[in-house]
Design a protein that fits this description.
By secondary structure, this protein is mainly β. It is 10% helix and 44% strand. The chain has one domain.
Length: 81
């Protein structure tokens, strides 16, 4: 699956491979300093191997609840380096 998002408040992987009958973990990161608490997020993707028209992948959404946890200034400095 390929990310089909222009969302600016979160960062998600550009591509996710979903094997049959498996669980996949991927990182979601809040980009906005204003995010806090729990939010319902819908992440749009296009399925690359299921075409609904020539060169047009199926549109799919991953709907999740995300708990955004603020990062302390010390950790932010370590991440930037």
């Amino acid at each position: 699956m390929k990310a089909d998002t222009g969302k600016t408040e979160i960062s998600v992987p550009d591509n996710i491979t979903l094997p049959a009958d498996k669980i996949v973990l991927f990182k979601i990161r809040g980009i906005s300093e204003m995010l806090s608490g729990t939010k319902k997020i819908s992440i749009p993707y296009k399925v690359k191997n299921l075409l609904i028209a020539p060169d047009e992948g199926l549109h799919a959404e991953i709907n999740i609840n995300v708990a955004f946890i603020p990062v302390s200034p010390e950790i932010k400095q370590d991440v930037k380096q």
